[in-house]
Design a protein that fits this description.
- The structure is a single chain.
- By secondary structure, the chain is an alpha/beta fold.
- It is built from 11 helices and 16 strands.
- The chain has 2 domains: about 130 residues, translation initiation factor eif-2b, domain 1 (Four Helix Bundle (Hemerythrin (Met), subunit A), Up-down Bundle), CATH 1.20.120; about 200 residues, Rossmann fold.
- The structure holds 5-S-methyl-1-O-phosphono-5-thio-D-ribulose.
- 5-S-methyl-1-O-phosphono-5-thio-D-ribulose (MRU) binds next to helix 2 and strand 9.
Length: about 350
Amino acid sequence: MVKTIEMVDGVVMMLDQSILPHEVNYIECRDYLKVAEGIKKLWIRGAPAIGIAASMGIALGAREIKSGTFDSFMKELDTVFRTLLATRPTAVNIHWAVERMKRLLNDNRQRSVAELKQLLFDEAERVLQEDIEINKTIGRYGNQFIKDGDTIITHCNAGSLATGGYGTATGPIRVAFEEGKKIQVIADETRPVLQGARLTAWELMQDNIPVTLISDNTAGALMQRGEIDLAIVGTDRTAANGDVANKIGTYSLAVLCKEHGIPFYVAAPTSSIDFSMATGAEIPIEERGPEEVTNIFGCTIAPKGVRVRNIAFDVTPAKYITAIITEKGAFRPETLHMIDKADAKLEQLRLKP
Ligand code: MRU
């Protein structure tokens, strides 16, 4: 499985996903500004992956700070936090990473600044390794809903490339495949940035998982023909009521699934659930530049000067979602808000196939 991101001798090596599948190239990020640039320019993308990149960026940013006291160190680090938070608004994992690193520093405020810097590097590595394990656990819970012979549709890339490895939506797919289930994946191409065509199709082919690419507008026809058994997608931020923000087009896919009686699953680490947001209406939605819609790989496909809307994510209301599969188990959207409570009776809340 191809590596999305790693730290080698204090340098962040980021796979440039903007040029996949044509070229496999790693960009060396030696400071946090380069990491921030990578997140903004989609060299790295996918909510968990940018959470990991942000953790590593914080460690790189802290390394440059000269201040010797805890308070002045934290004050300077605030610029690093703000820069990373300003890169992309929808994925909650950047906020999650910043909060995790702040908590670590506050819990260790009695230590020297040199020790704190080392702690940040160790923590960033832990964030990466934990993410891979979390995805494998999501995979085991999600695999329960996949039967031998199933065809699974997915949208965007919530695969190995969108995470530290293994993937969220591809977690259950990978476990099912490894268990020998004869499954097939349908990958929506996912305009405008084509994460489905360029990334999901590519990474599944790398691992010999059967995948068929479709243009986004083909999903309904396949469902009508009875050729889809279930859908699994990822999320950039899910609200406490189970409303799911994910790549534009996810909502349309969920509505189509409802119409055809096809289960619609969302696979995500709990770090992508924003329990502070009551509903999806509160989730900030990124809008991006027109060139992503008017151009494909440098080739212009629309009249010069045409007005464009490029909304990067949509919100799928909880009523369209069968279950949200996390590392704690699979839950109906309406019980999601309960899993964060210290006394949560997870076993009773878990959805069984
Ligand atoms: O704009 P992107 O490519 O960062 O959007 C990514 C998605 O929408 C993914 O489906 C989502 O982050 C889940 S990734 C595990």
